[in-house]
Amino acid sequence: RALIFPLLIREGKPTPFFTFVLALLFCVFNGYLQGRSLSNYAIYPPGWLKDPCFITGFIGWLIGMAINIHSDHILRNLRKPGETGYKIPRGGMFEYVSGANFFGEILEWFGFALACCTLESLAFALCTLFILSSRAKQHHQ
Fold it and tell me: Would the keyword Membrane turn up in this protein's UniProt record (predicted)?
């Protein structure tokens, strides 16, 4: 998302390069930590992929990702070319929560944490919850 979303935005305020680099470094570092945790330290019993915990987490991750992608699509297409000003997003999960993209990402990471059952994945899910819920509250206001 750190690479794709900024490249798909048609108009609007440009993302400062330093902010982009920090977001990219964060995603690379987090990906490394999650991957290292799963490949070197997590131990799963045979049949883990059939465990209800994994299946529920995977479904939560998949639904969260779908919500996130759809919400980003709605946000990117809010304004017509040349149009400015604030617009309230409609459709999808925006009918239920004002920060549907944030909700989708939070659901994604909690689904991932449930599927992985590692302390590292839970820590990232909680950090995502705290950071994005504060951003969602600001956007809602």
Answer: yes
Query: What does the alpha-carbon distance between residue 106 and residue 124 come to, in Å, rounded to a whole number?
Result: 10
Quick: pLDDT tens for 93-109: 999 998 999 999 999 99
C-alpha to C-alpha distance for 21 and 54, rounded to whole angstroms: 33
Quote the CA–CA distance of 141 and 47 in Å, as a whole number. Answer: 46
Locate the DSSP E strands across the chain.
Answer: none
Amino acid at 73: H
Q: At 82, which amino acid appears?
A: G
Residue type, 105: E
Residues in Cβ contact with 66 at an 8 Å cutoff, skipping those fewer than 6 apart: 104
Pair 126, 112: CB distance under 8 Å = no
- Containing structural domain, residue 13: 6-140
Report if residue 84 sits inside a domain: yes
Does this model's pTM top 0.70? My answer is yes
- Checking if the pLDDT of 25 tops 70, the result is yes
